[in-house]
Amino acid sequence: MSPELLLGLLAWGTLVGLDLVSVPQMMIARPLVAGPIAGAMLGDGWTGLTLGVLFELFQYEVLPVGAARYPEYGPATVAAVSAAHAAAGTLGLGLGALVGLITGMAGGVSLHAVRRLNARAVRRATAALEAGDARVLVRLHTAAILRDAARAAVVTALGLGLALLARTYLAGTISVRGVLLLDVAAVGSALAVGTAGTLRLVGRGQDLRWFAAGVVGGAAVAWLR
Amino acid sequence: MSAAPRARPAFGRSLLRLFTVQGSWNYERMQGVGMGVAEEPLLRDLRVAGNGAAYRAAVARGAHFFNAHPYLCGLAVGAAARAEHEGVPPDQVERLRTALCGPLGSLGDRLVWAGWLPFTSGLALIAVALGLGLPAILGFLVVFNAGHVALRWWALRAGWTHGVRVAVALRQPLLQRATAVLGPAMAFVVGAALPLVAQYLGSGFLGWSRVALAGVAALGFALLWWLRARLTGVRLGLVLLAVATLAGWLWP
Fold first, then answer.
1. Considering only CB atoms, which chain A residues are within 8 Å of B140?
2. d(CA A107, CA A110)
3. Nearby residues of A92 by Cβ (< 8 Å), 6 or more positions away
4. What are B26's strand-pairing partners?
5. DSSP labels for A142-178?
6. Which one-letter DSSP state was computed for residue B111?
7. Chains A & B: contacts with CB separation below 8 Å
8. What is the rounded CA–CA span in Å between residue A102 and residue B245?
9. Dihedral Cα A10, B122, B234, B199, nearest 10 deg
10. Do B25 and A118 make contact, defined as CB atoms within 8 angstroms?
11. Residues of chain B neighbouring A186 (CB-CB closer than 8 A)
12. Per residue in B36-66, pLDDT tens?
């Protein structure tokens, strides 16, 4: 992979990470968007789309309410696509999922760390904030956004590094059957997480009946195709 | 002391800043600093009117603790800014902001996080599974953000229009209807998406691997359901991948 391409993926992962919470929350942080764009950058649309769908299922478990802590799947999907593309033909989805899930966990931890750093910065500026100093207010806010951008860049770089390590040390050491087992684990867990996540979202009321009707309708379409 | 709001307040600048409202999210004031930044352009008239002290006091209040759904923060920004212009007593402005946190959080979570977002994302999943590819992703971005931007704009304008009587805006029939319709629509769409996505992701598996896939998905779902307080999706995925890696080495 060329340095230009790596830099492009790093920039895309940073934008995706920034979109999750800070700016502008237009949902490029959704794996379903982050993955296909990363795939298009690598000239591997199928891998990007497939891993985007896979991680979108994991994303259904996350409800970003208040101070909730959750994995960050945007930069994780970018890293996953990079790993799967690099190992195309040998490891594919399973390796991408492995790299992506580790990166997603790291992203979640980094979000918590940045929020703590932001709190410290706010505490330091309390006197100016209470005096209504608009310049300090805007500077504090801008610095926090830059901090989040740096965080997203570090998480993406970590993910891309993991992808490189996985390609170097894992590819070639696993048998064809092992590759298939990894793929089964990746897709199986994504389907399980997506189903459990959507059921929690839907709840038990009347919406559950609509959900069941949707499942029947979707299954019918899948069967007819 | 009150200052009459000018004919065209800086809505554009305030709206742009609202897109960054969570940029400085922290465990002390949560969205408070971002709210203050977004409200500040609407308060500049106070300074222009030669009332620097009122402006600074309003900016300080605007940056106090706040937490709600980010897309609906504009409602509180507009309402608080209008109240400041109308000379509403400071403690009443504080109470207004505090009172809005819960309803705006709850409404936004139902309307967006548990409604519009999974609904549009589910539609995109269905479209991808049916073979539409990248246009489905672009469609998702356009459709989702049409609702997103409209909601942010409406919230800011409604907050400014109603001021301290902003609760009226929350009872808007269109908002109530959207919340009522989006729940079942989201449930139906994500329900339909699941079997289609399963078919899309499972199409490469044949023979024993297809049976194993069904087994892993069923076992994973059962574990997540029973151990919901302790087991997260990311942990389940990592454990299953570790087991698969080990099995691959032991069973070449």
1. 27, 30, 32-33
2. 5
3. A47, A84, A179, A183
4. B30
5. HHHHHHHHHHHHHHHHHHHHHHHHHHHHTTTTS-HHH
6. I
7. 334
8. 15
9. -100
10. yes
11. 237, 240-241
12. 999 999 999 888 767 789 999 999 999 999 9
